[in-house]
């Protein structure tokens, strides 16, 4: 470390002017290394600031992406757990919606789905109906639906419509209608209070009661509660189906579900 020069005057001698002159003269051989050092410091500072800014923005984007667009109102965001690992049992509840089949069946099938998800529609069309025929209708398994309405406000409205239908004992009727008549993901015109109320009427419901229920978001907490439960169980996409707690992710072929169900039955 260099010592600070004293500010006290020194006694004047004949040799002092030459000494002072030597001290104030900068040797040219030091100019280039000093410039390089200063430049390196400035570049390092610039890189640090840019990187920190980028990381902060990235963290913000990652956090925003982790939050479901379905979360509204005063509900606190729920941080998703680690994705459900295939083959690893997860403790997941059956939820509040009515079961399809015998609740005392040996195999419990819990499906987390979004009514607007095209892969859920595929699961409903090509797989669920076969599972119901072979296992639910025969008393070997029971099927539960849980809300995972994460594809925006239209999904939340659809979820609320199913809850309002359940109020009139028509949950599975609305469930079936929403999948059988699912439009393209970009088309949200069906998911309005008026249109869904007309559908409710077609399904034999009291349209006035249904419309009041839906327009007031009466069961929004149920929809959000299921979403939070799914996130806690490691659901990161739809459909995610738990066979006695063992997750199967995505619209897998019927054979994958059959093998998983048969394995549970054999235990």
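-> sequence recovered:
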């Amino acid at each position: 470390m260099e010592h600070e020069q004293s500010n006290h005057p020194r006694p004047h001698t004949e040799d002092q002017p030459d000494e002072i002159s030597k001290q104030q003269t900068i040797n040219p051989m030091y100019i280039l290394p000093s410039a390089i050092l200063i430049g390196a410091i400035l570049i390092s500072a610039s890189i640090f600031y840019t990187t920190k800014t980028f990381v902060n923005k990235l963290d913000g984007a990652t956090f925003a992406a982790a939050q479901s667009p379905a979360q509204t109102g005063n509900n606190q965001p729920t941080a998703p757990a680690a994705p459900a690992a295939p083959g690893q049992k997860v403790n997941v509840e059956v939820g509040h919606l009515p079961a399809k089949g015998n609740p005392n069946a040996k195999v419990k099938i819990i499906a987390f789905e979004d009514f607007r998800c095209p892969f859920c529609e595929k699961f409903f069309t090509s797989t669920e109906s076969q599972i119901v025929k072979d296992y639910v209708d025969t008393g070997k398994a029971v099927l539960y639906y849980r809300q995972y309405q994460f594809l925006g406000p239209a999904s939340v409205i659809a979820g609320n419509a199913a809850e309002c239908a359940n109020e009139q004992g028509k949950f599975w009727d609305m469930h079936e209608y929403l999948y059988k008549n699912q439009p393209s993901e970009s088309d949200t015109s069906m998911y309005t209070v008026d249109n869904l109320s007309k559908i409710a009427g077609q399904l034999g419901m009291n349209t006035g009661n249904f419309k009041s229920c839906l327009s007031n978001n009466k069961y929004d907490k149920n929809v959000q509660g299921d979403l939070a439960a799914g996130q806690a169980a490691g659901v990161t996409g739809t459909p995610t189906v738990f066979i006695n707690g063992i997750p199967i992710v995505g619209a897998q072929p019927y054979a994958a579900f059959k093998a998983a169900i048969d394995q549970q039955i054999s235990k």
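The two ends are 77 Å apart (CA to CA).
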